[in-house]
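The freezer alarm interrupted the setup, so I double-checked each line after restarting. Inputs confirmed:
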Amino acid sequence: MSLTIEPGANGQDDVSPWDDTLLRVEDLTVSFPTEDGVVEAVRGVSYEVKRNEVFAIVGESGCGKSVSTMALMGLLPRTAQITGRARYLDHDLVNQPDRKVRGFRGNSISMIFQDPMTSLNPVYTVGRQLAEAVLAHERIAPKVAKERAIEILDTVGIPQARQRANSYPHEFSGGMRQRVMIAMAIINSPEIIIADEPTTALDVTVQAQILETLLEVKEGVGAAIVLITHDLGVVAGVADRVGVMYAGRFVEEGTADQVFHRPRMPYTAGLLGSVPSLTSDTGELIPIQGAPPSLIKPPAGCKFAARCPLVIEQCLSSEPPLYDTDDPGHRSACHRWQAVADDPDPVQLFRNAFRKDPPVDAALVGGEAGSDGES
Amino acid sequence: MTTQDAEHATVADVAPDLVGAQMIGLEEHDGEFTVESRTQWQLIRRRFFRHRLAMVSLTVLVAMVILAYVGLPLWKYPYNMSGTLENGGRPTLDLIPWLDGDGLMLGEHPFGQDTIGRDYFAVTLRGAQQSLVIATVAGLLATAIGTILGALSGFYRGVTDTLIMRFVDVMFTIPLLLVAAVLGRRFGSSSIFILAVIIALASWLTTSRIIRAEFMSLREKEYVEAARALGASNKRIIWRHIMPNAIGSIVVTATLLISAAILVETALSFLGLGVGGSDWSLGKQVSTYQTAFTTRPWLFWWPGIFIVTIALCINFIGDGLRDAFDPKQTRVRQ
Amino acid sequence: MFFFILRRMLVAIPILLASSFLMFFLVTISGDPLADLRQSQNPNVDQLIAARRQRLNLDQGFFERYIDWLSGIIRGDFGQNREGQDVSALLGDAMTTTFRLVILATLLSIVIGIVVGIVTAVRQYSIIDYSSTFAAFLFFSLPVFWVAVLLKEFGAIKFNDFLEAPGLSPAGIAILSIIPAILAFGLTPGARRRRLFAGAVTGLVFLVGLVIIDATDWMLNPGLSPLVVTLVSLAVGVGAAALFAPLENRRVVAAGVVTALVGVVGSLAFSSWIEDPTWTQLLLLFVLSLVTGAVVGSVIGGVIDRRAAVSTGMWATIGVGLVVVFDQFISAWEPDRTIATIGPQTPNLTGPFWVRMIDYAGHQILPSLALALIGFATFMRFTRASMLETLKSDYVRTAKAKGLPATQVIMRHAFRTALIPVMTVITISVATIIEGAVITERVFAWQGMGSLFIDGLNDVDPYPVMGFLLVTSIVLIFMNAVADILYAYIDPRIRR
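Predicted 3D structure, all chains:
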């Protein structure tokens, strides 16, 4: 498995951009008008996905990680306002007429969704729904498509695929349904599979199996995976590169190893501290206090400032860009990444913050200061 | 089996489940601090007052009620006094003054006069009074019956549920407007309240199914289970935990029933079974004067317009309430 | 599935028994059937009373009478009315009249309501959505007989006056062109400029068409020339193809076009049949055209596109058939008092098939329209709400993510599941339509079940009223069962 690190990537992509890059997202923003105001769900996201790699996007729910990928697939409601660019090879994906991008959907780029219980149409057999995916892109006889569906069901590990193809989704268990969704995603041998929380809705015992199946079939068809998850355990095991998202932006980006073992952003450190299996010594969990800010008129400055133990004046007034850090290819959106880097165990930052003064108040104070500074 | 199948539709349409948590606001921004937090009722009220069509309808409806109850006693003619026909009883109301240049004016008989010279403005206002009373009483009574039976059925389930719902099934196979006609034949025409009761008896069925479905889904909610685990009595669970969440559906169906009752009253009048004696209702006016359409169209138009306006206003208010109670359906307009 | 249907049918029997009992009770307490005789001055009043007592079985107790009546029903005997006429015979005549009205109104309201419901859901917050929703609310608020009287006045009397000397004013032409233009603007997907263009083109087409119609006095002598028939049929063929495959799929489009042409040629070949057919001939032609469509589609479609091409062929022939029938229909049109206000047909009318048909239609259209409005509003609102729900669902998102074209996403995935809740309101709607029919029939002076019921009610004549209520509740129970079966057909989770 190739572990690609961009040499000196810092927003300038002049260095032979098309070598192995399948998907290039540039400054993508998505906003939704609501009755309380405009929700800025994604506020300028850029990343690249290279052939065959697993790129993970990590973040809390509501941080915009799903929305940013749905935008690529044209799956957002019509009210969504999208700007920026997303290119698959040299085809534009966003803000294009439907007939232009439809050919890529489910064909070159496919998607697996979070909830297998509701993602399959209850009134059609599984085989028919799979065959339909083939027929949407290839002019072949329906019978041939059905055979392909049975084959692929077998590939993803559904026993007695021929009979099961004639079953309805409600006759499958959750894990089996997610296998069907995986089958649907790979049936046209895509180059990119976007997996949106593929294991979240499943039992823990099934999660590992599904993940394994996903990685196997990925090797089989030679696809890259964009893995969206909030489960750091999953990411650590399978991802080549990781992007951490917070409040609609990437706040840290690097290889899995860099992000997990040498975080350069307090938020990432906080996340690591709140996951049992990854805490270094005692096994004690250290939560991040507070909640993400509203994405309607978010405060100025760093959006994490209100919850951050390292917050300084600068954080409240200017939002940090993605800085290159001391690690090559490892970028962090933190004015104080150096401080994080210097800390031998940044996970402990949050413990101290909690002990010193309750961050709940800090959150409020920070928030108000932020919005004052804005106006 | 039919009942269980049927209720999804009605519930989805009239009032999808109102889960307390979802009332706080959109899920994406519950931790927000730029907008101050509001209680459930404040949110509902705010949404309702923002619903422009519902607000316009509410204003029109209130105006009509005031006109009927305050206007009629103040008006120069009582509704039952006949007089001499002036100008063939034509309406003197001039709403489009730029056509003949007479200016906006009410005139002597704004809505004209009927065949024996009664002031038709007074008659129509009287009709509106009666129709409003009948519709309100019938609508509220039907809501009460439907809610009680639906709640019993949905909360206790088992035998109670089976009995009530089989009964509802049977009632659904009977064209109820016509049963109301049969009953009206025997008991109606003596008092508008009896008429209202008959209309109510004919229109509570759908409500009972909706409320039953609502109760069935609400009683499975975690907070109800929590209350039960804490030893709350059935009474307390119903009133403190289920009712506040079911109130949306109840209010919405009540408005729809009231507007439907106005139309049922009209239909019954047409079948000759409405308000009796020399008194009036809007429905009785329209059905009495349908044959006068070619000769004295105003006798047919005015009560008809009143009926449609009242029913339309109530329907729009119901729509506004539904939107207010159900945040999932309030979507952003571009 | 078979056992599901059987079980569903068996459940209906006790419900029917219970409802008939309840109705019998209500009718019995509704009044005294002897009231008029008790006040009669007739010298032989005692005799009359005795005769009626005997005829109506009044000497027995309530339960005996019910059992008596019920056993009569099982034998097909609905009892007698006060004058001693057989209710069964009266009912038979009344039913054919009324059901013609109810069935047409129900079908109209279902089809139009569902189509408009889909369109408004897909184009939520468009002009079409707002205006249709407003219309639905308005229809919900209209007393049915007020509408019927208005339709009688404006749809029949005034429209007939218009047809005596048809002529469109410039303002009329402008309005009739602007409305379709707005509709086209609302319906076209995509960017604003494209939608404006579509609206402008549609408006222009209507403008030119109406000017031609007005200038050539087409309305006095309507009919479609063979050229127009061919052109419209071709459009129908392409349209049918668009329903089943993207238009880039040449084979399916070819299937539609070829079927349309074959249909036009076929209609010329069978012109002697078509000009004055019998019902059998018409049915044969219908079957023949369906088969032709299927064969043409199957041949052109080949292995890969067979399914889509066959469907296209069949729908294209249905479309062409409608165009041809429409042509015959308006050719038979006499500039006469076409839209009738009294009765279900002109009595003792003879003449060619299409003349009789247009007479039927002229009588049928207004009462059906009055009834269909209510049902339309219900179906439209339900379909819209249900479609909005499914359009947001995860499996529709999956279908989009597969790369299916928008029409397939909407029709196959969103619409099919959206139909499930819509099925359940069919029964309620039919009940409302039957209730409305009683009133509408009265307004348009049809002698149907409505007058049987109302007269029976006014005369306190129990058995005609019971006959009406029983037939109605059988229809409702039947519709309920049909809805349940369709429901199970659509939704495999219920099929057991």
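Quick read of the result. The mean pLDDT of chain B is 78.
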